[in-house]
Structure formats: structure tokens, C-alpha cells
Amino acid sequence: MSKTDMISDITSNARKTPSRAVTMAAVGRMAGVSQVTVSRALSDPSKVSSETLRKIKEAIEATGFVPNAIAGALASKRSMLISALVPSITNITYTSMIKPFNEVMRQNGYEILLSETGLAPDDEEKLIAAHLSRRPDAMLLTGMRHTVAARRSLLGAGIPVVEVWDTTETPIDLCVGFSHMEAGRSVAEFAAGKGYVRAATVSAGDERALRRKNAFSDRFTALTGNVVLESNFEAQASLANGRAGLSDLIDQHGFGDGVIFCSSDILAHGVVIEAQARGLRVPEDIAVIGFGDQDFAAHTHPAITTVRVDREALGRAAADALVQRFAGIDLTAPLIDIGFEIQDRASS
Amino acid sequence: MSKTDMISDITSNARKTPSRAVTMAAVGRMAGVSQVTVSRALSDPSKVSSETLRKIKEAIEATGFVPNAIAGALASKRSMLISALVPSITNITYTSMIKPFNEVMRQNGYEILLSETGLAPDDEEKLIAAHLSRRPDAMLLTGMRHTVAARRSLLGAGIPVVEVWDTTETPIDLCVGFSHMEAGRSVAEFAAGKGYVRAATVSAGDERALRRKNAFSDRFTALTGNVVLESNFEAQASLANGRAGLSDLIDQHGFGDGVIFCSSDILAHGVVIEAQARGLRVPEDIAVIGFGDQDFAAHTHPAITTVRVDREALGRAAADALVQRFAGIDLTAPLIDIGFEIQDRASS
DNA sequence: TTGTACGCGTTATCAT
DNA sequence: ATGATAACGCGTACAA
């Protein structure tokens, strides 16, 4: 260190009393080594003698040094940040898949930048741009519908991209999910197989829910010859919407008896509650099938028949795929279908 | 631009086919201006002539340039990142308060780095360190219990800190929440006021829930002279746990009739369902009071009496406090108590 | 085992 | 209105 350096250091310290950030250089100075040695001590302690390692640790302890990951990211061109976009952070459907994703990635040293996109693809596009500016090392997207501009900037970023919660023939990169069309169709076959000949649906407005609903209706009609009544709404699914859905079907559409396929368990629960409030028996008068197999579905009274998707496995699979990518392993199957499973319970 | 610059550009392009990151310098070159001018055009367009602004926009469009926020953060010492720590990202109690927090912060140009801490303060400490290394401009913490090391590094970081979802006499910095002790006590007074003389509790193991429970029991006993039975568990609250809780109270503790205060609405709902499954009437035989006023509480059958906390307002207040801080406004009240409100419904 | 020199892609500070 | 130049704090050669 030159004399002028020392002086400038002293003056700058004197000038700015408020919380001067501790740097590796400062730690090194205190430990009597250079900045690089501190860097090495932190990234690979085996490359540093035990004696200097001890001094450096002391200096870190004394100064309360916290490495600056921003500078590290700029220098190494790796942010150790994964950006994840979900439709809603208050919807357990998505957060329960982000949770294991997060855990696996953190074990590998990554942090998750999580944002909610809402409904519109245009909003997603803006969020993708905002996230890309932080130079994430990979990105997780929910769903397969993205604007062309979004796809373009994603490809331009040159990072791994996982699309989850659906399947497609044309993924941007990696893909982990299941077929919503097949799910709806399977429920129709399940319901018809149980002998139901009248059916209705209660659905939220999101695109994947509608695909399940349509697949259900088409298949059910093909099997029974009967039209499927439907009650749709735009807002977020809730017990209230489920109750309103059944009321709508009964009061407005003249639905009398049969099975009702709901786009989520919470809606199904609402339908069950409304039925009971009206003195209708479940499943004798009205049978109910939900979607998602959330925690409560098995414990309502009666328990709700539903479609189980292993969201934890999905999140883990998405993370594993990324980790392999980072390790330079070529993935033989960039498209992973984790499937689904109908849980046959008392509500149907 | 010199001739050698051009050559080096050409060769570097030829050398590295895979996604050479577009820089401001590259955009400037294409637009015939310097890198600084591009920076200005982006941060404050009014400082650039309309003609060059047009050229720069063209160049950005043509190259697909995405600004590097990492470099920006390093240079400006502002990451425009807010780190938020919640006990669980799958628990709507917390995410519903993060949602408006997130929205307000994003409107002000900030992004949220969200992580879940789980139960242990030690885990929180590690997460805080990890987050601080990303140099967030502020941090949101859930709860008031932090390790001394955590408090130290937080203070050392010199950034605004908001602690939410509780109150304390000794905040690190800002604080937005309500008193869990007062909440429990109020429920006891409410229940005793309704004439209940026997009571029990069903509680999850988190520290704040236990504080509510204890305050309830103490006050109820003081008012009625009767001991309050309790059933506690460690796992996350669920319908299943609520059902098990009532079973436990009845089968193991001999609870016959009275009011049950649950640490969350989901538990209360479980208690209601188990009561109904046992042929008990709610509230005639067993009255139920929940906590949180989640969406479904008003729509179960019967609707659940509960304690409403305006989580959205809480998240917004926390964000507003930070925004004011960033604007240099001195906050007259660093401690904000948003209170709570008992929702008197059919279950009690 | 340790150090020197340089670059990462911006913003901030002066000039012009 | 625009440009040169110096930070920002760290990793990555390369050298010793």
C-alpha cells in the first residue's frame, strides 16, 4: 500500500462517519494480507495457510464483514440468483411447489427472487424484463403462455429456463408439469364410471382451469350424451365463490342433482358447504370433485374427492433439472411429466 | 470509435457465439454516442436531446439490450432490492401481508427478495446474513425475536429494518404490528362476556400463538375462576390438527362443553368439522373462536367467530414506512399498532 | 502460499 | 447536451 493510499483511506474514514461498508481489502489490511487472499479464504479455505486463515477469520469477526455479493456477481458473472415467477404468491398451489424448489436451490447456494405475475401475459413480460436485469442464473416460469417479446428476451439471456405446472410440445428450454387436458378428461371418465349421468362445473377464470373444465365437459358429454352445465367467474377462488357457484347452478341453471367438477379444492369445499346449508346431501344429492388435493381436502366432512398433483415433487424436479444443468450435465428428458392421480373420497 | 475498437469487436463477436451480453457501450456505439449518454437516456431522458434519444431507443430495440442492474447497484450503492423474511411462504397469513408490501415497493422501483426462515431464530440468523450479502436497501422481518448476532449485523448494515406482525418496546428500527397478548386477553373477555364459563384452547407451537393462548387462559380464569384446558401441537396448523385437537380435548381431557379458542382459523374450522362429525352442535354444545379472519372463516357453516387482523393494511403500512424513510422523511411514529378486531359470527 | 493487475458494466463527478 | 474518467468491491488470470 502506498503512502497516498493510506492518507486517502484515513481522510475518507474521517469524512464519512456513517457505516462505511467493510470490504475484503479492509479485512486483509487488518489481517496483514492482500484482498485476494481474503477472497480465497472465503471461497476455498484450503488454498490458504491455516495461520493466515486464522488471522482472516479474526479480522472478519472483528469488523463484522459481510461479503458483497453484488460485486462478486459482477466479477464472476454469476449472480447465484434464480428468478421465479408465479401467478400468485398467496395461492398455496404455487407456493407449495416453490417451497421445495427454494430449498433445493438454496442447498446449492442459490437464492430465489420470487414475484407474482398475476393474470395477464403482458404483466409477465414486464416482470421478466425486470428480473433479467438482475442477471439471474436461471428462471422459473409458471405456465407456457408467454408473449413473443418475453420468449425473445428469455432466449437472449442465454440462461436455463424451466416452465412448470403444465406441459407443451414447444418449451423454451426445460419443462416440468402435467397435462391439464388429460386431467379434465380423466375426471370425466372417473365420474361417468361411477354412474353419474348429470354434471356441472364451477371454475375460476384462469386459462389452465378452463382447459381442464373443457376437457371434462367434452369427455363427459361424449360418454353420457348429456350437456354439462357450467358456472364460471373471474375472481380468485374462495369458499364464497364455491358457495355462489352452486347457488348459481341451482337457482339460475336449474341444476338438480349429479356431480360437480370444481377447478380447485377450495371451490369444491364451498360447494359442499352450500349444499349442506341448503339441506342437500353430499354425495347422495350432489357429488363434488375438486382439484389439487390441498391439505384440507381429506379432512372436510365429507372428505373431498379430488385430483392430486405432487407439487412438492414438481418443485424438486424443477430444481434438480437446473442443478444438473449447472453441473454441465446434458438432460436426456427436458420434458418431465409428473402426472396426476384421482383421490377417490366420500364426496363422490 | 477507433479502428482497433471495431476490429476487436468483430473478433470478439466471432469468437464467442454464445450470447455475448449487450452493454450500454455497445448500444452507444450503435447509436453513435458514448456509454454515459445511454445511461442518461435511461435514467433521465430529459437530459438527452430527442434526436439522440431516438437513436438510442432504436439501438436498444435492435440489440435487445437489458440493463445490468448488478453493475448499476455496485456503482450507485443502491440495489433497489428489499429483503423480506417470513416464517413460511406457504402460509397465507404471511403471504397476504407480503403481497401488498410487494406491490407498494414495486411501484417505487424495488424488488423483493423473499425467503422463509422456518421456526428457529438460528436459521433466521443465517438467512439474514445471506440476504445482507446482497446489499438490500431495506429488510423486513417477521416477529421480534432475533439472535444477538442477527441484531448486530442488521445494525451494522445501516439500512432501514421493519419488524412486523407483533409489537415491542425495543424495535431494531421500525415496527408494524399488534399486541398478541392483548388479542388473547380480548378474546377471553369477549367469551366471558357472552356467558361462557368453560373454555379450552387448541394451539400450534409458534411463539406468538402461545402468547395469545396464555393471555386468553389467564384472563378467562381471572374472570370465571375456571381453569382452561389446552391441546397443543408442534406441526403446522391444518384441518387435521384442528380435528385432532378437539378429539384430544374431549377424549383425553374430558372437555364437555364450552368455548374453544384456536390459534388459527384453519384449526377452528377443523374443530367445527370434528364437532359436527361427532354430532355436536356448534355453538350450542361447543362454541369455536379462531384467529386471523381468513377468507373462508365467514363462509363456513356455521361462520367462524375470529380475530381479524388487517394483514393487507399491515403490509402496506410497512412499505409506506420504508418509502418515507427512503424519501428522507423522519417518521414521527416508528411503532405502528394496527390493532385487531373480533368478528362475532355464528360459531360462538 | 501469496500478491499484482485487470476487468466486470454501471453511476457519479467533473469537464467541455 | 455530451464525454472522459474514476470509482464500486470483488473474481480471475498470471506471476512470484
Which properties best describe this structure?
LacI/GalR-like_sensor (chains A, B), 47% helix, DNA binding (chains A, B), Rossmann fold, 13 helices, 348 residues, homodimer, transcription regulation (chains A, B), LacI family DNA-binding transcriptional regulator (chains A, B), DNA-binding, six-stranded parallel β-sheet, alpha/beta, 3 domains, transcription (chains A, B), four-stranded parallel β-sheet, 434 Repressor (Amino-terminal Domain)
Can you give me a brief rundown of this structure?
Chain A is an alpha/beta fold.
Written account of the structure:
The structure is a homodimer of 348-residue chains. The first copy, chain A, is α/β, with parallel strands linked by helices and 348 residues long. Chain A has three domains: 65 residues, 434 Repressor (Amino-terminal Domain); 132 residues, Response regulator (Rossmann fold, 3-Layer(aba) Sandwich), CATH 3.40.50.2300; 129 residues, Rossmann fold (3-Layer(aba) Sandwich). Chain A is built from 13 helices and twelve strands. In chain A, strands 2-1-3-4-5-11 form a six-stranded parallel beta sheet, sandwiched between helices. In chain A, helix 2 packs across helix 4, helix 7 runs parallel beside helix 8 and helix 9 runs parallel beside helix 10. The N terminus of chain A is likely disordered. At the A-B interface, helix 5, helix 6, strand 2, helix 7 and helix 8 of A face helix 5, helix 6, strand 2, helix 7 and helix 8 of B. Chain B binds a DNA duplex (16 and 16 nucleotides) through helix 3 and helix 5.
